[in-house]
């Protein structure tokens, strides 16, 4: 068996009750006792340690102890694991397993502690061990020094436990005479040095019986002072002449001076008063998500499908409004407040909801800026492809853009760290935790029975337990209330200010807007999207596997398959009414909807859409190239009721006047066969701004451009039509504006990506090989000078050649120092197999492959001890 293979298979359990193996003295030594699976679990839990791959286990341990990496690891702990780490930070270093457990369970009524905490404790310790935040066997548990510095109490950074410094830390600068006075007043015998005095006082506070006897002699007011300090903060200010209760506590060391006016309750005394507990409330289990309301699963799916179709209609309406070119892009990027308000009015929603739809279209790649000099927003070519998809697939495209997206529309209207307003479609809207929070919120809803809607308060409480340290991002001024599906403000539970809670609330509201939830409960298509088991398996849909093994696009296809039968079928007819309105009894097929949108104005939306015909809307259809007979035939073909006489008269009347006047380019001119009508226009005072004059009985010339002349005459109540230079009527339907092809915005990752199995296996193999090279025992000559740790071997060229030749003949491994072409020095363990032509070829245990090394780049060589050869 090779050296590398033996090292990879070696594994000494960390949890050693004593005897046998020597306990590890450093984190690096503790990592060497792990098997490959243990190292892979560490790298999987803390992927930042892989960038770049460490050279050996010593470098891995060093990187795992850096402040940035430890902070990131602590932020990903749940509340109980964090409380366990906080308790270890105030425990003796190192701490035995039972001592740490006692800090969490307390004494209990019968000295047994809390059984729920005791049951969850092994899992928490194992989680901390896996992430290399805690190391050592059960008799010597140690917290990584950086984590201890972050969690241990100090005057500048109070401990989360509310405990103060220990007696030895609080008396570090105290005079020996003062220490003797304190122990004498506390009833302890005098000692010969300050160290034994501190030990005696510590032993008194840690002894439950003697401490109870001491407190029995305390005045009631002194006990009241302790009650105010026991759960923190442990510091209190006093005057130069403190009251008698404070003096009584100070004289016996129950309060120790930190400065001339500040006293602190020492940790050992506080733990006695707390019953041995480091925390007032220990939360070993996550809070449950409470059911707010329950519905039939079919009702939930129907409501969600209706909202999904509304989402599709809203996106189409939004981009149809911007089909001929949207508003300008601000100089700093984004949409102006005025344009956002106009968009909200056009969509008939609140501004936060309008911002959500804009960001969703942008995130899905359907909307972007055109990049021209006069930069404007417009639909992208992908929007036309999106329109050609079936409704369920269009919905899938939207939700697959929303779920992993990091742009957060809820921040629109707030301020960044510099006090600048955050605008829709603008910069600074990416928040990396958003995808994780969205998926987690939906997954928590999936833990409830089918058709049950979870309480937002309980969802926030669960998220706070799972990531208690993930606080708010600086500069994010919270929006007062999240949007709802109707655009109204929903009550926010406890007015959260931290970013994670606000992201959760926005996720709940946005999921309802998209139809992932119906009436607050998770729908069947949403379960398929999250790759969760379905409440009622569908024979046409493959079942998912818990854990998210299927790609998002495949899961979205499953969700679209489930949603398709629930969406309303488009209809091909309307109901015309005598009051110049048309009622669409359902969603219209696209050709009918597009034509009707030109011929009439939308008056109201809902289960049925009401369209109103007006002279302006009919003229708009005539301007688009339709004739009166075309419009009449269209309505007769698509109406289940006869065309009302008032509507037919309206179309004929507008068509009779339409094009009676002709406008062209002179600068501009007006021509009409009826010279009397031209005379009326000249006599009208409202035409003065057009500066008209008669060129012929049937022609007027104007000192303005044709477009302004056209608008001016229409404002006067006429219905002119534009004509070309050849005298043909111009169709004024605007062409659709599209941006150049644009890619959807890339989400901003929340730290390094999770490594896959292949990367983990390669990284562990490389770290093992590098560690073998750095820790291999070398055979030194008796007359060789001592070598510093990490120093490369130095031998002459002749000695190097002779040693590697001998190793090639015997098949043994040697340790070499090597400098590559870039000048980077490294140490390696190789097993030479051939030496010729100035090169040595052998198996490189460090790289776990056969390599060839130039002899002139080998700085030196040393043999390995027999046990490592």
Q: Can you put this structure into words, describing what you see?
A:
The structure is a single chain. Helices cover 42% and strands 12% of the residues. It is an alpha+beta fold and 869 residues long. The protein has 6 domains: 3-151, no CATH class; 167-237 and 244-273, no CATH class; 293-566, no CATH class; 575-657, no CATH class; 662-722; 776-868, SH3 type barrels. The longest helix has 25 residues, at 297-321. The protein is elongated. 39% of the residues are buried. Mean pLDDT is 83; it is low at 1-19, 477-494 and 537-550.
In short:
With 869 residues, the protein is an alpha+beta fold.
Brief descriptors of the model:
single chain, about 850 residues, alpha+beta, 26 strands, about 40% helix, disordered N terminus
Question: How are the SSEs ordered, and which strands pair?
Answer:
Elements: H1 3-9, H2 27-32, H3 36-45, H4 57-64, H5 67-75, H6 79-89, H7 97-105, H8 115-130, E1 134-135, E2 142-143, H9 145-151, H10 167-170, H11 176-185, H12 194-206, H13 208-216, H14 220-229, E3 235-237, H15 244-251, E4 256-259, E5 262-264, H16 267-273, E6 291-294, H17 297-321, H18 337-347, H19 351-363, E7 367-369, E8 377-379, H20 381-387, H21 391-402, H22 434-446, E9 452-454, H23 456-466, H24 499-514, E10 517-518, E11 521-522, H25 524-529, H26 552-563, E12 575-577, E13 581-584, H27 590-599, E14 601-604, E15 609-612, H28 615-623, H29 628-638, H30 645-657, E16 662-664, E17 668-671, H31 675-683, E18 692-696, E19 699-702, H32 706-715, E20 721-722, H33 757-775, E21 778-779, H34 797-810, E22 814-819, E23 825-836, E24 839-844, E25 849-854, E26 858-864
Parallel strand pairs: 16-20
Antiparallel strand pairs: 1-2, 3-5, 4-5, 6-9, 7-8, 10-11, 12-13, 13-15, 14-15, 16-17, 17-19, 18-19, 21-26, 22-23, 22-26, 23-24, 24-25
Helix pairs in contact: 1-33, 3-33, 6-7, 6-8, 6-9, 11-12, 14-15, 18-19, 21-26, 22-24, 23-24, 28-30
């Amino acid at each position: 068996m090779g050296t590398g293979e033996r090292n990879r298979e070696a594994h000494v359990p960390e949890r050693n009750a004593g005897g046998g193996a020597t306990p590890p003295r450093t984190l690096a030594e503790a990592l060497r006792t792990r098997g490959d699976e243990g190292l892979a679990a560490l790298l999987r839990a803390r992927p930042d340690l892989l960038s770049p791959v460490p050279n050996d286990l010593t470098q891995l341990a060093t990187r795992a102890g850096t402040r940035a990496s430890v902070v990131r690891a602590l932020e990903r702990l749940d509340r109980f694991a964090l409380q366990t780490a906080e308790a270890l930070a105030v425990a003796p270093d190192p701490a035995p397993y039972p001592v740490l457990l006692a800090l969490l369970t307390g004494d209990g009524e019968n000295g047994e502690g809390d059984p729920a905490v005791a049951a969850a404790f092994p899992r928490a310790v194992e989680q901390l061990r896996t992430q290399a935040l805690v190391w050592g066997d059960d008799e010597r548990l140690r917290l990584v020094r950086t984590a201890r510095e972050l969690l241990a109490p100090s005057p500048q950074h109070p401990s989360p436990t509310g405990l103060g410094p220990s007696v030895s830390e609080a008396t570090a600068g105290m005079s020996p005479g003062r220490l003797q006075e304190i122990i004498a007043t506390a009833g302890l015998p005098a000692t010969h040095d300050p160290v034994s005095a501190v030990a005696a006082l510590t032993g008194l506070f840690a002894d439950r019986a003697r401490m109870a006897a001491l407190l029995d002699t305390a005045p009631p007011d002194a006990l009241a002072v302790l009650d105010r300090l026991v759960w923190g903060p442990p510091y209190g200010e006093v005057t130069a002449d403190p009251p008698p209760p404070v003096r009584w506590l100070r004289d016996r060391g129950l309060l120790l001076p930190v400065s001339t006016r500040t006293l602190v309750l020492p940790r050992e005394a506080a733990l006695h008063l707390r019953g041995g507990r480091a925390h007032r409330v220990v939360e070993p289990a996550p809070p449950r998500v409470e059911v707010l309301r329950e519905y039939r699963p079919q009702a939930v799916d129907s409501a969600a499908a209706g909202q999904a179709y509304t989402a599709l209609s809203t996106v189409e309406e939004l981009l149809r409004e911007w089909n001929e070119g949207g508003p300008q892009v601000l100089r700093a990027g984004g949409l102006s407040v005025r344009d956002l308000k106009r968009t909200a009015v056009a969509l008939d929603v609140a501004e936060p909801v309008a911002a959500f739809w804009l960001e969703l279209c942008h995130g899905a790649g359907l909307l972007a800026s055109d990049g021209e000099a006069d930069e404007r927003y417009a639909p992208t070519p992908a929007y036309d492809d999106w329109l050609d998809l079936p409704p369920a697939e269009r919905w899938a495209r939207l939700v697959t853009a929303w779920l992993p997206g990091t742009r957060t529309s809820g921040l629109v209207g707030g301020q960044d760290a510099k006090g600048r307003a955050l605008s829709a479609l603008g910069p600074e809207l990416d928040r990396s935790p958003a995808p994780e929070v969205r998926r987690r919120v939906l997954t928590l809803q999936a833990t409830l029975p089918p058709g049950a809607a979870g309480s937002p308060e309980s969802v926030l409480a669960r998220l706070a337990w799972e990531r208690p340290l993930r606080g708010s991002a600086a500069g994010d001024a919270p929006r007062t209330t999240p949007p709802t599906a109707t655009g109204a403000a929903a009550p926010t539970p406890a007015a959260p200010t931290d970013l994670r809670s606000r992201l959760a609330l926005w996720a709940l509201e946005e999921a309802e807007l998209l139809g992932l939830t119906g009436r607050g409960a998770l729908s069947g298509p949403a379960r398929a999207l999250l790759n969760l088991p379905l409440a009622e398996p569908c024979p046409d849909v493959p079942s998912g596997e818990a854990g998210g093994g299927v790609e998002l696009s495949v899961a979205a296809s499953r969700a679209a398959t489930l949603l398709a039968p629930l969406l309303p079928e488009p209809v091909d007819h309307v109901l015309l009414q005598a009051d110049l309105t048309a009622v669409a009894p359902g969603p219209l097929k696209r050709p009918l909807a597009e034509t009707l949108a030109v011929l009439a104005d939308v008056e109201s939306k809902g289960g049925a859409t009401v369209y109103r015909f007006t002279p302006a809307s009919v003229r708009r259809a005539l301007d688009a190239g339709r004739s009166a007979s075309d419009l009449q035939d269209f309505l007769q073909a698509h109406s289940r009721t006869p065309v009302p006489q008032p509507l037919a008269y309206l179309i004929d009347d507008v068509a009779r006047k339409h094009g009676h006047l002709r406008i062209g380019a002179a600068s501009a001119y007006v021509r009409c066969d009826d010279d009397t009508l031209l005379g009326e226009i000249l006599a009208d005072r409202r035409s003065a701004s057009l500066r008209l004059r008669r060129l012929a009985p049937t022609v007027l010339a104007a000192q303005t451009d044709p477009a302004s002349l056209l608008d001016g005459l229409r404002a006067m109540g006429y219905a002119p039509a534009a004509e070309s230079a050849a005298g043909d009527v111009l169709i004024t339907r605007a062409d659709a504006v599209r941006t150049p092809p644009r890619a959807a915005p890339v989400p901003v990752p929340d730290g390094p990506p999770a490594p896959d199995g292949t990367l983990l296996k390669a990284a562990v193999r490389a770290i093992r090989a590098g560690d073998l090279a750095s820790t291999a025992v070398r055979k030194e000559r008796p007359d060789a000078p001592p070598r510093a740790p990490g120093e490369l071997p130095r031998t002459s060229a002749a000695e190097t050649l002779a040693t590697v030749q001998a190793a090639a003949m015997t098949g043994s491994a040697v340790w070499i120092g090597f400098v590559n072409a870039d000048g980077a020095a490294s140490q390696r363990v190789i097993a030479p197999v051939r030496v010729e032509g100035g090169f040595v070829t052998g198996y490189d245990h460090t790289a776990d492959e056969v390599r060839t090394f130039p002899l002139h780049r080998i700085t030196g060589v040393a043999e390995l001890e027999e046990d490592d050869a």
